[in-house]
Amino acid sequence: MRKVPAVEWERIWGASDAEPRLPITFDQDVPTERERILATAREAGYAQGQLLALQEAEAARAEILQLRQQLEQQLQQAQQETQRKAAELGALHAGLQSALDEHFEKVQVLAVEVAYLALARAIGEVHAQRDLLADLCEQALRDRRAGPVTLRCAASEVAALSALPGAVVVADPALGAGQCVLETVAGFEAIGLDVRMEHIRLALLAGLDRPHGATR
């Protein structure tokens, strides 16, 4: 705004002869064209600044929203991958446990078979020195005192079993060494070493808490 001095007002309006001349002190602010242009520019700049600020805020908001969606998608993918890996590990653990159980069972059965073979070898050696089949047959005859009894055995066992009282000994070509079948009016019963060894084997396998039929 330009300030008009008092002397200029006096020059413009002139002096009255009827009134004494006094200094004019009336001032008035009058905006110039430059000031109006500057004020308009300031208002336009302020409005444009507000618009740019809103646009930048909206762009930042959209960028944050997009980043959030990406992070949520990555988190979901990570969770799915974790669940898949957990399922794979669970299946692997179950398969490994099953394989270990099966291997342990086979080892136990193998140990029983080895023990059985060692026992059979020991019994065979004892039988070679002492007639174990005759002892088994003698015990069977004592348990069956009444009625006729026939002992069927291999030809190589006839001589040893013929000394037993109360039984007729018959060679049976279908039987091998150590085998013997006791025949009475009630029927036939195998009482040889092979039967006793089978009982021992089943008893060993029964200690494994598994079915007797699943031996191998």
Computed CA radius of gyration, to the nearest angstrom: 60 Å
Taking strands numbered 1, 2, ... along the chain, how are they ordered across the largest sheet? 4-3-5-6
Main sheet makeup: 4 strands, mixed
By DSSP, the count of extended strands is: 6
The shape, in one word, is rod-shaped
Features:
hypothetical protein PF0899 fold; single chain; disordered C terminus; about 220 residues; alpha+beta; 5 helices
Can you characterise this structure?
With 216 residues, the chain is α+β, with helices and mostly antiparallel strands. It is built from 5 helices and 6 strands, in the order E-H-E-H-H-E-H-E-E-E-H. It has helices spanning 6-13, 33-129, 132-143, 158-161, 193-206; strands at 2-3, 29-30, 150-153, 168-171, 180-184, 187-190. The strands form 2 sheets. It has a 4-stranded mixed β-sheet, with helices on one face. Strands 1-2 form a two-stranded antiparallel sheet.
Question: What's the quick description here?
Answer:
The chain is of the alpha+beta class and 216 residues long.
List the helices and strands and how they pair.
Elements: E1 2-3, H1 6-13, E2 29-30, H2 33-129, H3 132-143, E3 150-153, H4 158-161, E4 168-171, E5 180-184, E6 187-190, H5 193-206
Parallel strand pairs: 3-4
Antiparallel strand pairs: 1-2, 3-5, 5-6
